[in-house]
Amino acid sequence: MIFKIEKKLKNSLGRVGMLETPHGVIMTPAFVAVGTKATVKSLNPEQVRDAGVEVVLGNTYHLFLQPGDEIVRDSGGIGKFMNWPGPTMTDSGGFQVFSLGAAYGKDISKITKITDPSLLIPERFDDSDAPRLAKIGQDGVSFKSHLDGSIHYITPEKSIQIQHNLGADIIFAFDECTSPTEDLRYQGEALERTHRWAERSLVEHLKLEEQKNESIFPQALFGIVQGGREESLRKQSAKIISEINVDGKYFDGFGIGGSFAKEDMSTAVRWVNEILPEEKPRHLLGIGEPEDLFMGVENGVDLFDCVLPTRLGRNGTIFTKTGKIIIMNTKFRNDFGPIEKDCECYTCKNYVKSYIAHLFHGKEMLAGTLASIHNLHFIVNLVKKIRQSILDDNFFEFKEEFLKGYLK
RNA sequence: GCGUCGGUGGUGGAGUGGUCUAUCACAACAGACUGUAAAUCUGUCGCCUUCGGGCUUCGUAGGUUCGAAUCCUACCCGACGCA
Hints:
By secondary structure, this protein is α/β, with parallel strands linked by helices. The protein has 15 helices and 20 strands.
């Protein structure tokens, strides 16, 4: 994997670059489509590609459980398995430590608002008796399969082994995505744990790379920075993760993970990217909304991934330049215009809102597909436009103009 | 014409003397969703409301009863059977 920076955004951390992988080039900043179970939900690879997607992200935990990482390996790797010829990534399962752990069965998001009352609780809320499918040990995480209840212990080594079997071009260290409801003391403990796991991930990765024969593509490993909303922890994490090395071999790039408050996400990202080595790519995990993408790029992020375009699409919420719309709302039943008249996506070129609303009301499968195509195109294209605006020296103008219309 | 069964909120369909504005499902309406446990979930869903409550509903009209969607009578409507 080779990363080249083409141009920097003046007076900020932003940059435009290119990331070369064994399966093709990613023009950064780029939005990565999420294909957790080796499929971008409701879309086939041609539709994903036509939406402008350059790279797809699968998930270690899900593919380990089903169909099993060895099956993916034996089929020729995740890209071949899912018929996606381009670059691929896999997440390590670290997010499931949160989503199946602290967040399981609760109404908790990794993105909070400062006004969220749960953040005002000074003491850590002890809910260790609450049912959860992921339980953290010092050595790894015990997962109770959401599919059949079977127990699986995932260590950093195990996650890396699985990811080597899955065979994505870029893989991530096993981390703990810490819940925003945890107190500072816990955040610190979790951070130390994530750092230990990062080093073990790197050791295992280098070992497996060494054992590979030439017929197998080399993989790049990204370390993950955590630290929640806390400045000292974020900075400490960025420093430690970027310095971790085994015999002079470092992480190939970095993920920025964990929970954020919407209001101060930009500062958290800036703290980290001011410290991470400039010449390596940074991936802001699980973000985001259009305004978050501008924020991330401006603060030095090269890659984003998020389930939002496809999840919102399947659930009937559609991105437009003037804000999100809920296509099932009554007013769209007889709206015979496209979602966006100047949109180049397949959905907008061929269908009107009335029809898409009809498909959703009728619970037709095509509904989620058409909405996902548009949403994915919208977000992927937004990042491409942001990229171009940096090349054209009008990033800040573009940002202001877009957000003025979008956030209204 | 006679007989039997049945008519419940937008729909289907519970309820068969009080705890009934009436279980439940669907539809409808609104909302949520940020490294996917998710083509999912939440709320509203008779009318009015100063959100305390007030008022009116179970084919129609009467009646019995302290009290009726629930019992009785008549009528209207539907299905089936016999003429």
